[in-house]
Design goal:
Elements lengths: L1 H12 L4 E6 L4 H10 L4 E10 L13 E5 L4 E6 L5 E2 L10 H5 L7 E10 L8 E8 L8 H18 L1
Antiparallel strand pairs: 1-4, 2-3, 2-6, 4-5, 6-7
């Protein structure tokens, strides 16, 4: 789940105003060091949570209410005018967001929580929020709209800093 979500988030964040740079580190001190090395101004920490719908006979890809804390691979992003962002998570073997959507069952609730903090200062976020959606049908792509909503908020914040 993590790799397709990461790729989708990169698509939403990358563009003429922001350069997205992958960050491989997974531990706070290493995240800070890598973000600094790659000249990132911000780090985006994220969590994707799936809560199985009440009438699901199967629990889906994740069982019950499960959190993929820190599961979106890290990204660094720099404002072309001299800023930068990084996003946290570990990788996954799934090949795409469409395949990830195949794990979605009707009435599953998905939440993408995120925190944007200055590089080297995770304790002082400049943005902290979440986006949530509920699947109406099996296989519905509820993940992309959540990532898009988060990316828009992050870009707005990065562009005004």
């Amino acid at each position: 789940m993590a790799e397709p979500a990461r790729a989708e988030l990169i698509k939403f964040l990358n563009g003429p105003a922001v350069e997205v740079v992958p960050i491989a580190a997974r531990i706070g001190l290493q995240i800070d060091a890598e973000a600094t090395e790659k000249e990132c101004n911000f780090v985006l920490y994220s969590t994707m949570t799936q809560k199985a719908g009440s009438s699901s006979t199967k629990k889906g890809f994740l069982h019950g209410a499960t959190s993929m804390a820190g599961m979106l691979p890290m990204l660094g992003a720099a404002r072309r005018v001299g800023g930068a962002v990084a996003v946290t998570a570990a990788s996954s073997a799934m090949s795409g967001i469409a395949e990830a959507a195949s794990t979605v069952k009707a009435r599953d609730e998905w939440t993408f929580s995120y925190k944007l903090a200055p590089a080297g200062n995770a304790a002082a976020p400049v943005l902290e929020s979440s986006a949530a959606g509920k699947a109406k049908a099996d296989g519905e792509n509820v993940i992309s709209p959540l990532l898009r909503q988060a990316a828009e908020a992050v870009l707005t914040k990065v562009m005004t800093k």
